[in-house]
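Researcher: Sequence recovery benchmark, item below. Answer with residues only.
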């Protein structure tokens, strides 16, 4: 276990101090270096967790992390609740005293309990050694050994440059400082209220202050004088600004001894951060942020300076809003106290503040995004409990006899249809009863392969009075593959729905949502939003109708009334720019045709670029009644097949392209003749505007909208082979693609093995 060396020095009684000398800074550097050496030596002797000493265990992964960087020693927020399967009754010590965390090798991790609430959600900060999307740590609780629980140091959670961390959850002063380096907020002025519901436990409310309310922390040598820094917090405005409001300041009343201040500027309606450099003759540096956030919502704000890149950076809710060139000398070393809520003498902040942090380094882009997301995203952590398959009350088997002989597909998403058996029609699963499920919406339906490995699954449609549809990723799909469905467990294994689509998919829109936005099932990829006459809309229009009967679940109907509606996304996460391999799939049902129209009806989707007009599109040529996929390749526009679907029926269109092997077009799982063979890669999009439309050529054109329904749109960055595309069609269109065994009470024994 890591130890922490802290040198306590006598505090000055004067409110001012002499500037820090080079000699004193060198001394502090040597002390810090010694402390780091001691920490490194202690880290080499990490404490090992004995799993047998605890009654319960949870595996925690970080599926909500969207970055690509491996974040070292990241403080992640773990949210525990009975709803998510945490068993408070098994804890033996008060306030999570026997809750411990370890990495995959059993090494004890630093943790700090922020909020403990056995009747709700408990919040615990854990230092994760290497945070990635696939990282896993373990929580242990329910101490049952006669010895003492392994000790942890909460301050060790905040090792990565943090010099001040205030959670602000206490009921009164002092407001504890968690890094162990700085001082608490130990005094208050005016009408300050505590234990306001914040984004992380309790927060501090300054909204009742008419003048001068604040919290103050004594001057500390570690809170100023740095070259690089990050200052961050969560805040919420209760009312509109009546005047300029200082939020966090290290400033004397006279403003002659200022290090920095953060304020909401009423005159410009922006957030502003100001620093005073320590170098003689250096001017004060200030930069305005984005607009003051809306009243009534919590927002994460942060300011940084990176002296290496000479960049001043501003953040709002995990997004970098400013990234400007600036040269700032090291911040002035001020003797002033740190004030939260206002400065002495006025300028109160009309709202609440939570989770204030100061660092002596500029954290990376991925770090800052994760800092916001670990608080704001309740699914940042995924929990897997020490559950066995015999904890489920029922099961049934699924085999895939509809797969063609000789075909073997890897990590294929199959459609499983769940329904009670109907004697009249002979459809459904014999013995299956929705009442045997213990969680609504299919929340406890889980799947395993023949070896007991947990499989990723996503509920597409849940209908307890009819047929439910679930996507399951099967590791190896053949005609003899068998998987098992388990259900009837109030605390099932945790699955991540997006893992179903982790095999080359860039976008998967089921289009089953009702409203003006349609979710993307691929992790981190953009949804589709309603687009009318050139802009996103917040209300439905008559030309686009959601909630229509689809080939599976719901679909979207286009071409009604003014015919100007489409779905669209500008997010580059689904762009096919410069692609040498891709596959596009879509289901469409055409209910109308106008052979007299001179214009082609762009039936499926079109990707727009700022430089080249159109990059890839599928259009229905009205003069001939054919469907023609086209793309703008390096050597010009090509059309490589023509498909003639029947009207009034659902059809599956797929187009797979490989720069080496060429392109293949398929209609309903069957290969279509090629008219022309493209070559090379798609044209590179050199612009910044990438606009993908579903259901129309452009949102402002009322003659080229697809007259019908669209469902299940998919884009992949790989060229799917013919067997894959045929199975993609068949798993939806062929009811006999899967065969279901009789549901029965479960008597399976054994321990689950997680499949990735």
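Model:
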């Amino acid at each position: 276990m890591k130890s922490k060396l802290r040198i306590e020095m006598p505090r000055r009684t004067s409110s001012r101090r002499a500037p820090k000398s080079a000699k004193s800074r060198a001394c502090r550097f040597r002390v810090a270096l010694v402390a780091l050496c001691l920490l490194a030596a202690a880290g080499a002797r990490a404490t090992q967790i004995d799993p047998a000493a605890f009654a319960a265990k949870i595996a925690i992964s970080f599926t909500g992390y969207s970055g690509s960087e491996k974040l070292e020693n990241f403080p992640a927020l773990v949210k525990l609740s009975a709803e998510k399967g945490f068993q408070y009754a098994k804890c033996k010590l008060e306030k999570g005293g026997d809750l411990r965390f370890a990495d995959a090798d059993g090494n004890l991790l630093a943790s700090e309990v922020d909020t403990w609430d056995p009747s709700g959600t408990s919040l615990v900060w854990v230092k994760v050694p290497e945070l990635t999307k696939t990282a896993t740590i373990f929580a242990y609780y329910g101490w049952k050994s006669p010895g003492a629980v392994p000790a942890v140091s909460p301050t060790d959670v905040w090792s990565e440059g943090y010099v001040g961390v205030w959670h602000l959850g206490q009921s009164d002063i002092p407001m504890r400082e968690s890094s162990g380096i700085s001082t608490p907020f130990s005094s208050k002025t005016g009408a300050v209220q505590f234990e306001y519901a914040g984004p992380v436990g309790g927060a501090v409310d300054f909204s009742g202050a008419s003048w001068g309310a604040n919290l103050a922390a004594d001057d500390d040598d570690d809170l100023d004088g740095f070259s690089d820094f990050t200052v961050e917090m969560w805040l919420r405005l209760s009312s509109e600004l009546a005047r300029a409001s200082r939020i966090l300041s290290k400033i004397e009343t006279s403003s002659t001894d200022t290090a920095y201040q953060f304020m909401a500027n009423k005159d410009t309606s922006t957030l502003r951060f100001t620093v005073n450099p320590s170098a003689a003759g250096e001017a004060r540096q200030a930069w305005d942020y984005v607009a003051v956030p809306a009243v009534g919502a919590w927002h994460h704000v942060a300011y940084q300076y990176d002296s290496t890149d000479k960049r001043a950076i501003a953040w709002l809710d995990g997004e970098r809003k400013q990234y400007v060139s600036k040269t700032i000398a090291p911040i002035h070393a001020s003797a002033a106290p740190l004030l939260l809520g206002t400065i002495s003498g006025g300028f109160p902040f009309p709202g609440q503040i939570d989770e204030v942090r100061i660092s002596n380094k500029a954290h990376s882009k991925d770090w800052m995004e994760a800092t916001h997301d670990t608080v704001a995203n309740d699914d940042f952590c995924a929990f897997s409990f020490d559950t066995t398959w015999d904890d489920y009350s029922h099961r049934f088997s699924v085999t895939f006899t509809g797969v063609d002989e000789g075909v073997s597909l890897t990590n294929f998403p199959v459609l499983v249809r769940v329904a009670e058996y109907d004697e009249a029609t002979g459809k459904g699963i014999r013995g299956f009863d929705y009442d045997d499920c213990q969680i609504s919406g299919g929340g406890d339906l889980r799947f395993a392969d023949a070896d007991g490995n947990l499989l990723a699954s996503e509920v597409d449609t849940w209908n307890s009075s009819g047929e439910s549809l679930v996507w399951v990723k099967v590791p190896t799909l053949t005609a003899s593959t068998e998987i098992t469905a388990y259900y009837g467990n109030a605390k099932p294994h945790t699955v991540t729905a997006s893992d179903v689509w982790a095999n080359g998919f860039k976008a998967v829109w089921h289009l089953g949502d009702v409203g003006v936005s349609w979710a993307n099932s691929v992790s981190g990829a953009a949804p589709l939003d309603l687009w009318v006459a050139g802009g996103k809309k917040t209300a439905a229009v008559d030309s686009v109708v959601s909630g229509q009967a689809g080939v599976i679940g719901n679909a979207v109907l286009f071409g009604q009334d003014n015919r100007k509606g489409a779905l669209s996304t500008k997010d580059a996460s689904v762009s096919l720019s410069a692609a040498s391999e891709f596959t596009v799939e879509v289901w469409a049902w055409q209910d109308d045709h106008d052979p007299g129209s001179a214009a082609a009806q762009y039936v499926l989707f079109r990707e727009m670029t700022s430089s080249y007009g159109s990059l890839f599109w599928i259009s229905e040529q009205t003069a001939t009644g054919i469907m023609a996929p086209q793309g703008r390749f390096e050597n010009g526009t090509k059309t490589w097949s023509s498909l003639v679907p029947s009207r009034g029926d659902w059809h599956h269109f797929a187009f797979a392209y490989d720069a080496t092997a060429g392109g293949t077009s398929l209609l309903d799982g069957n290969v279509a003749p090629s008219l022309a063979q493209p070559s090379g890669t798609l044209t590179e999009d050199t612009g910044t505007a990438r606009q993908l439309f579903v259901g129309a050529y452009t949102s402002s054109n009322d003659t080229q909208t697809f007259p019908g329904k669209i469902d299940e749109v998919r884009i992949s960055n790989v060229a799917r082979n013919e067997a894959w595309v045929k199975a993609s069609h068949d798993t939806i269109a062929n009811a006999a693609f899967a065969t279901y065994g009789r549901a029965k009470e479960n008597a399976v024994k054994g321990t689950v093995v997680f499949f990735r």
